[in-house]
Amino acid sequence: MRSQATALRSKDLLGIEQLTPEEISLILDTAEGFREVSERPIKKVPTLRGQLVINLFMEASTRTRVSFEIAEKRLSADTLNFSASGSSVEKGETLIDTAENLMAMQPDMIVIRHKHPGSPKMLADLLPASIINAGDGAHEHPTQALLDAFTIRERLGRLSGVNVSIIGDIAHSRVVRSNIHLLTKMKANVTLASPPTLMPAEIEKMGVRVVHSLDEALEGADVVMMLRIQLERQSKMTFPSLREYFNTFGLTPERLRRANGGAIVMHPGPMNRGVEISSDVADGPCSVILDQVTNGVAVRMAVLYLLAGGHLQES
Amino acid sequence: MNLLIANGRVVDPSQNIDRVADVLIEDGIVAKVGPGLKAAKGVETIDASGCVVVPGLVDLHTHLREPGQEHKETIRTGTTAAVAGGYTSVCAMANTTPPNDERPVTEMIVAEAQRNGVCRVYPIGAVSKGLAGGELAEMADLRGAGCVAFSDDGKPVTNSKLMRAALDYARMLGVPVVAHEEDCHLAEGAVMHEGYYSTLLGMKGVPAAGEEILTSRDIHLVELTGGKLHVAHLSTHGAVEAVRRAKSRGLPVTCEVTPHHLALTDEAVQSFSTSLKMNPPLRSESHRLALIEAIKDGTIDAIATDHAPHHPDEKRVEFDLAPFGIIGLETAFAVCYEILVKSKAIKLAQLVDLMSCRPAKIFNLPGGTLKPGSAGDVAVIDVDGSTEFASFRSRSMNSPWRGRTLPTRVVATVVGGVVRHDARADAKEGEKARPKAAKARTARR
Predict the structure, then answer these.
(1) CA atoms within 13 A on the CB side of B199
(2) How far is it, in rounded angstroms, from Cα B205 to Cα B258?
(3) Which among A230, A208, A178, A244 is positioned nearest to A17, based on CA atoms?
(4) Could you tell me which residues of chain B have a Cβ less than 8 Å from any Cβ in chain A?
(5) In sequence order, what DSSP letters do the residues of B327-380 get, joined into one string?
(6) Contact A308/A34 with Cβ under 8 angstroms?
(7) Are B229 and B253 in contact (CB under 8 A)?
(8) CA distance B52 to B411
(9) For all residues of chain A together, what is the average pLDDT?
C-alpha cells in the first residue's frame, strides 16, 4: 500500500490509535527515503537545522533514547537529553512544571518516555511544541510499532493479510498495544498468546485472536513477535517460575518449525535470553531483531521530519 | 426564622404531595403546607412560582476535609457548596486529619459547623481507631457527641472479625455501619475499572468482583449480627444483585449510588482527565445501566455525592498519581435530573425521594419531609432553568462537569427557615461587582 496522505494531521505523535492507515503508510514510505542517509559516508542531512529537540526520558531506555538521538543528529537538529535522575524531578518537581520550564527554552519538539500512561497527551495539550511519545507506561509506543511494521514490510513485502503472532507479557506491554492498533489498521491478522495471567481484560475487542498456547500461536504465523517478560513488573502471582515460563512459552528452534516457511522472528528488546526466547532463535537465521534496531533510526527520522513539516506549514 | 415560600409546585414524596402550594415556616419549623397561606406582616417571602419546592436535599456521603485538610475544603466552604446545590444536610465522613475517631474531633466538627457552617452537618464516626482497621473506635462516645453513623470510608474494613464487631456494636447504638466495599488485594495499584478501556489505556484496573466480594461478605455479617449495613457508593451489577437479594430476605441493608456512577463510564477516561479518577472507579456501560435499573426498581435507597475535594495542585498530575475523588454537591441534582428525570427513567418525585426523604430516614435525620412540625429545610429549584458550572463554591474544582451547562437551577435553599442560598440575590450582586469578582477569580485559579 503506498501512501496517499502527504502530511500528518496532528502536531504530535501520541500513539498509533489516532493515526489513519494513510498516515501510517506515509511515515513508512518517508522512512524508506531516509534509510539511505545512514548508509552514506557523511550520515547527515540539513532538514532540521536550527531546530531544538529535547529528549525527556523519565524512565530507563537504551535503544529508544539512542535511536531518537541518532535520528535527530542525522537530521541536523540540536538535541538535548534530559533524564529524571540528576534533575529537579528528584527534588519533587512535577512533570508539568518540568515540561513548562523546558518549554520556556523554546524547543520545537519534545520526545518523552514516561512510566505513566497519558503523560505525553498531558504535555501535548499544554505545550505548543510537538510531542512524540517514546513509550508511556503500558499504553503506547508508536515508533516501535512503526519500525516493526517497516521491518515486516521490508521482509515480506506487505502488511495486509500477514499473520502476526505476538507472544509474551501482553498485560504490561505498550509495544503490543501500538502494534495491535497498527497491524489491524493495515489489515494484518493478529494473534496474541500468553498465560491468562498476563492477558489483559477484553483485549479481543481490539480485533485480535487470543490463545493460551505457544504452538497454537505459531501455527501458520508469518511473523513471530516475542515480548520481554518484564521481570521488574511481575508479582509472584503471574506465573510460578521462569523455568516454567520458558517451558510453556519460550521460543526454541524446534517449536518455531510450526510457523510458516520464511517466517521472521522479532523482539523489541531488551531480550531475556532463555526466558522468552532461546539464543538459538535470537541469533538464528529467522531473526530480524537487529534489523529492527537499524530501521528504528530511519522511522524516527521520518516521524521527526513529518512533524517538523507540519510545523512549518502551520507557521 | 419565619418564611413563606409562595406559589411553587410542592413535591414531597414523604406525604405524596405534588401540587402548587405555599410552604409556611415558623420558628424554623414547617408550620403549614397548602394553597393561599397568609403570613404575618413583614414575614420574608420567596416567590417560587414556576419552581419546584422540595424538602432540602440530604447527602449521606460528604468529605468536608476539616479538620486537617483545609486546603481542599472547610466546613464553611463545603456547606456553602452544599446549599448552592440544594442540600440542607450533609454527613461528614471520618477520614479527616486527625480522623473522627474520638469525641473531641466530633465536638470540634459540631462546634465549627454551628459557628461557620451554612447547613446542617452530621458527623460520621470512624469504625476503627485511626481508620487503621485494627480495633474499634469508641463508638458509643462518638454517638453521644453527635455521630449519626460509622464508617472507615476511603478504605474497606478488611478484617471480617472487626466488621462483625462493628455491626454488632452499632446495633446497640441503633445506627448503621457505612461500608466502602473493596477487596484491597484485587485493587492493588488500580487506578480505574478493569475492562476494555483499562486494557486500551494500559492502566491498572480493579475488577468489579472486588466490590462484589466485600458487599457479599458484609451481607453475610448482617445476617450473623442483625446490625444495619449501608453500602456506600455502590457501583457494580453484582453488588446491586447482592443488595437486592439481601433486601428480598428482609435484611437491614440499604445502599447509595453517586451521580457520577449513574452518568459516566470508563470510556470517558480516555481523556486521561484526573477529574474522572475516583474510587470506586467509573465502570462500564453495562454496570451503569444496572444501576439505573436498580434506581427504577427501588433497590437503591439513596443518591449520595461522595463529594471529595482535592486541591488543583494535587489533581494536576499524571492520572496514575492523582488522588481519588471528585466534588459533587453543587452538580448532583442537575446531573441526576438530566440522567434520570429528563430521560424519563424516573419521575421528579422519585428523585426527591432518593436525594432527600430516604437518605434522611436511613440515618434517622431531621428533614427529608415538609410535614408540619419537621425541620424547615427546603430547596426551591427551577427545573426548566440551567446552571453553568464555570466555577464552584467549593474550595476545589475537581469536577468532570466543570465548564458544562446542565439543566435545573437551585433558586433558593432554606435551612431551618433561614435562606442560606439565594441565586437571584447572588445574580444581582454579581452584576454589580462583576469586573472585580472576575479579576479575583482569575487570580486565584
Answers:
(1) 19
(2) 20
(3) A178
(4) 194-196, 198-203, 205, 207, 272, 316-321
(5) --TTTHHHHHIIIIIITTSS-HHHHHIIIIIHHHHHTT-S-S---TTSB--EEE
(6) no
(7) yes
(8) 10
(9) 93
- Output the pTM of the full model: 0.94
Asked if residue B89 lies in contact with residue B65, where contact means CB atoms within 8 angstroms, the answer is no
d(CA A238, CA B200): 20
Of B198, B272, B317, the CB nearest to A201: B198
Q: How distant is the Cα of A121 from the closest Cα of chain B, in angstroms?
A: 8
Half-sphere exposure of B276 (CA within 13 A, CB side): 17
Ordered by start, the domain boundaries in chain B are 56-370
A201/B196 touch (CB, cutoff 8 Å), yes or no: yes
Q: What is the pLDDT of residue A84?
A: 76
Q: One-letter amino acid identity for B337?
A: Y
pLDDT in tens, B212-247: 999 999 999 999 999 999 999 999 999 999 999 999
What's the complex ipTM? 0.94
Tell me what pLDDT residue B93 has: 98
**DSSP per-residue letters across A32-53:** HHHHGGGGSSS----TTTT-EE
- CA dist B248 and B63 (Å) reads 32
User: On the CB side of A105, how many CA atoms lie within 13 Å of its CA?
Assistant: 13
Question: Per the structure block, which three cell numbers stand in for A252?
Answer: 526454541
Cell of B120: 446542617
Query: What pLDDT digit, counting tens, does each position of A270-281 carry?
Result: 999 999 999 999
Residue A311 has pLDDT above 60, yes or no: no
Give the pLDDT score at A89: 75
pLDDT value of position A315:
29
Q: Does domain B56-370 have CATH number 3.40.50.1220?
A: no
Facing A121 at nearest CB: one of B195, B200, B272: B272
